[in-house]
Design brief:
The longest helix has 23 residues, at 7-29. Strand 2, helix 2 and strand 3 (63-69) form a beta-alpha-beta unit. The protein contains nine helices and nine strands. The protein folds into two domains: 30-114, Rossmann fold; 140-258, NAD(P)-binding Rossmann-like Domain (Rossmann fold), CATH 3.40.50. By secondary structure, it is α/β, with parallel strands linked by helices. The protein has helices spanning 7-29, 44-60, 75-86, 106-111, 124-131, 140-151, 171-180, 195-199, 259-279, and strands spanning 3-4, 34-40, 63-69, 93-96, 160-164, 184-188, 204-207, 225-228, 250-251. Strands 1-9-8-7-5-6 form a six-stranded parallel sheet. The chain has a three-stranded parallel sheet with strand order 3-2-4, with helices on both faces. Helix 6 (140-151) packs parallel to helix 7 (171-180) and helix 6 (140-151) packs across helix 9. 41% of the residues lie in helices and 14% in strands.
Length: 280
């Protein structure tokens, strides 16, 4: 029987635990974890995501600090904002909403986030530590996927995983996390030759390419583990799932699979950041 990797259900269960942890933090220290979100410009999708993150914080008793900057914000101005939050002892985590306007050096701004507050897992130093199996906050979507796979006890060790997509906050960290879990990993991208034949070898397929139904069901072999990290206005992901559902070992539905785990992981890591500070 096919396993449905239900991220929505897992996220709801995890939030119950998060509420208890936040309450414990408050009772022990008088501190409430605070997630600071920085939104530059007026991209409607980004505004929606930031609002969803704020609502999630409220549900578990955390605070959210929303900072909105105009479209014409310079890199230096954004760096100053990040630095102010780095130095704000009340802030447990910092999230710079992606994408930023084209005039901003986004990588420099990401890397200016204090690694101890990098709860979205976007810094180069955090990625390096994670890849070397050192303690660091993971990029939220791939780490959310790993949490989902672990919850359902999906076997990873020795499996051949094919990750389609190489973005710095999804494809690349996803590949490293799977490698750290003893999978054999192939990363595919726009220059990969004969992509269907590469995907056909996979025991685990991760769609992270950002194109609706780009990965065809006929490319994927029976009894595979199928993870779709995409979501598009057409209410579909990066993988054409329909004819796959009955022949997979396990798959993530769209919506309700990977998406809820991304914000849930952001909450988890903000709580952990606050706990780390208190324990130190």
């Amino acid at each position: 029987m096919t396993i449905i990797l239900n991220g929505k259900d897992l996220a709801l269960k995890a939030e119950e635990d998060f509420k208890k942890r936040v309450t414990t933090i408050k009772e022990m220290s008088g501190i409430t974890p605070v997630l600071a979100t920085i939104l530059v410009g007026d991209d409607p999708a980004s505004e929606t995501y930031v609002k969803m993150k704020g609502n999630a914080c409220e549900r578990i008793g955390m605070k959210s600090l929303k900072i909105e900057l105009p479209q014409n914000t310079s890199t230096d101005e954004l760096l100053k904002t990040v630095n102010d939050l780095n130095n704000n002892d009340e802030v447990s985590g910092i999230l710079l909403q992606h994408p930023t306007p084209s005039g901003i050096n986004e990588r420099a701004c990401f890397d200016s986030i204090n690694i101890e507050k990098d709860v979205d897992g976007v810094t180069s130093s955090g990625f390096g530590k994670m890849a070397m199996m050192e303690k660091a906050f993971g990029s939220c979507t791939p780490y959310g996927i790993m949490r989902l796979l672990n919850h359902y006890e999906i076997p990873l060790s020795g499996k051949h995983a094919v990750v389609i997509g190489r973005s710095p906050i999804l494809g690349k960290p996803m590949a490293m996390m799977l490698l750290n879990a003893n999978a054999t990993v192939t990363i595919c991208h726009s220059k990969t030759e004969d992509l269907p034949s590469v995907v056909a070898q996979a025991d685990i397929v991760v769609g992270a390419v950002g194109i609706p139904k780009f990965i065809k069901s006929e490319w994927i072999k029976d009894n595979s583990i199928v993870v779709d990290a995409g979501y598009h206005p057409e209410k579909c992901g990066d993988i054409d799932l329909e004819s796959l559902k009955d022949r997979c070992f396990a798959y993530t539905p769209v919506p309700g699979g990977v998406g809820p785990m991304t914000i849930n992981t952001l909450l988890l890591q903000t709580i952990e950041s606050c706990e780390n500070k208190i324990s130190n």
